[in-house]
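Shape matters. As here.
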Amino acid sequence: MAKVEVPEGLWMRCDGCSKMIFKKVLEEKLRVCPECGFHYRVDARTRVTQLVDPETFEEFNENLVSTNPLEWTDSVPYTKRLVQAREKTGLSEAVITGKAYIKGRPVILAVMDPFFVMGSMGSVVGEKVTAAIERATDSGLPVVIVTCSGGARMQEGLVSLMQMAKTSAAIARHDEQGGLYITIMTDPTTAGVAASFAFLGDVTIAEPKAMIGFAGPRVIWNTVKAELPEGFQTAEFMLEHGYVDRIVERQNLRSEIARIIDYCGK
């Protein structure tokens, strides 16, 4: 019997269950393993496509770019690191914002990208998130933010940390005006982003097994030498302890967002 040649690149081993999965099926399942349900990280553009009604996303503030306020250089100059991130992702920064419709419901949407400097929050990310929230407040629309971040961007130092207060203040104004804010926390949502706008949602949703928390387990151990509970900083642990309202699989997010908006009358 003649040997059948299988083209390379059609299959991959799942990071969750180690089974071989067909890449085309993985994409059809929104990059969720059909065998074990492992949720792969997705870039911001893909996430927008998965969430919103076709051809309804109207992006704004897409041309804002970070500078180098501290003239930071580590192994690579910060300016060069930004250029590399733009070339790698095709984005100007680690978040994209715009107006869209989700199952016919108008929303203001912000989606973070885990592949742009680890989705970290610098001055431009803070400005774009804040501007999106303010636009939602002014227009009376719900704001939906998909978080995926390693936290504040160390290359911008205090300027980055200030974004925690800035975004939180915008959310407070949105709440005072009766606005609805839905957070979708994906893997990972940590540090300065978790400690600011990620946990301030009226409804907080998490994807299954997403890492959610402030400092990582290794940092905690090195600092306080504490034994951490099993499953610490997973979405399931956060749900059990009241930090997350519900865990929703990726294919159900659109319906869940629409249901929440309808329930809240927004």
Remarks:
- The two ends are 64 Å apart (CA to CA).
- The longest strand covers residues 181-190.
